[in-house]
Amino acid sequence: MAVLNSRTIEIINNISPGADQVGLGDLMEQALSGVLPPGSVSVGEIGLTTGSIILGASSVGSALDVKGDTKIMIGNGTTAAMYALSGDVTMTNTGDVTLGTLDHDLTIDAAHLIFTGAVDKVIAAGSYGSQLVHPGGELVTIAARGAADGWYLGIGSYMTAASEDGKAFPLCTLAEIVAPAGTDRIQGAQCMAFLGSPGGAEAVHLKTLGGDGTAGMYAGWFKIGANSNCVVDSGARAAALWVDNQLSGTITGEEYGIFATTGASKPDAFVGFETTSSGYASLFYFDETAYDQDPCVSGNCTGGNKDYHLKVNMNGTMYGIQLYAL
C-alpha cells in the first residue's frame, strides 16, 4: 500500500497510480483505518474529550480520561491506567501526600514533613543493635538562614510526659569509640555561638540586654523551673546541670569535672552570679558522701606559706581568699 505524504496527491480512478500517486482504494483504506499523513493534522483539530489524552493502544491512538479527582497514571509494563492512592497512602489534588496508619498521619508537601496523632516512632535510621554504616562527614545536615527579625530554631524538640512516672528526654546523644587503636577525641555534643562567621570579617554587635535577662550570648542555656503549684518532694534533687565523671580503667592523663579555657579577651570571672530574689544558700555543698573525701580535709593548714589568694568580686569590690602552700 502506498504511503500518503505532504506532496500533492493525485487521485486517478481506474488508472494504476504512479510512484507519487495513490489509488482511490488505498486512500479509502487509509482513511477508514485512521492513518493520516504526518503533519496533516494539528493538535487543535483533534476531537478529544476535555481531560483526556491520547494513549497508544494496539498500534493506534486511544483516548484516556486523566481528569479523575486525585488519580494518577500508573504504567504496568504494557500500557497505563488511572488509579487513586488508597489504604494508608492518600494524595490531594494539589499534590499533598498523607501516609497514615491507625495511629498517626504523615503529611508531605513542598516544605514540610508533618506527623500528627499518636505515634510510637516517627523516624528510625538504624538502632543501637543495628547501626547504619556511615563513611564519615555529616550524617544529617540542616543549614538555614533567617531573613528577618524573629526566632529561628534549627531543631525544636518539645516533649510532654502526661502520665505518672513518665520520663521526657527531648535530646539524647551518645558517642562511643570501640576501635582498639583508639582516638584523640570523643565528644558527646558541640555547642558553639559566634558573632559573625568563624574566621570572617563581619562587624557584628552583641546588643545590650535592654532589661531582658534572657538576652545575651551563650553556647548553651540550661534552665529548670516550675510553676507555683508544683512541689519538689523531700529526698528529690533538682539541678540546672549535672556533671558526672565515671571513667574506669587506667587513667594516667588529665581528668576534670569541668575544663575551662580562655584565649582572646579576659573574662570578668569564671562564674558570674545573678539573682532575682533568692540567691544561693552556699557556694559549695558537700553532702554526707563527700564532706570527708578529697578535696575536703579536716583540720587547719599548718606549716604552709601564704603564697597565693583567689580574687572574688563582690558587687564591684575585689576581695581575696588566702591560699596556703601545703
Task: Sum this structure up briefly.
With 326 residues, the protein is mainly β. It has one helix at 24-33; strands at 52-57, 60-65, 71-75, 80-84, 89-91, 97-100, 104-108, 113-117, 306-314, 317-324.
Per-chain topology:
Blueprint: H1 24-33, E1 52-57, E2 60-65, E3 71-75, E4 80-84, E5 89-91, E6 97-100, E7 104-108, E8 113-117, E9 306-314, E10 317-324
General description of the model:
By secondary structure, this protein is mainly beta. The chain has 1 helix and 10 strands, in the order αββββββββββ. Among the domains are: 46-83, no CATH class; 90-115, no CATH class. The protein has a 4-stranded antiparallel sheet with strand order 5-6-7-8, with no helix packed on it. Strands 1-2 form a two-stranded antiparallel ribbon. A hairpin with a 5-residue loop joins β5 (89-91) and β6.
Basic shape? elongated
Quaternary organisation of the protein chains: single chain
Structural class: mainly beta
Beta-strand level of the residues, as a percent range?
15-25%
Helical residue percent? under 10%
SS summary, helix count: 1
User: H/E series, N to C?
Assistant: HEEEEEEEEEE
Mean pLDDT: 81
Whole-number radius of gyration?
39 Å
Number of strands: 10
Give the spatial strand order of the biggest sheet. 5-6-7-8
Unreliable spans are: 1-15
Euclidean distance between termini CA atoms: 116 Å
What summary fits the major beta sheet?
4 strands, antiparallel
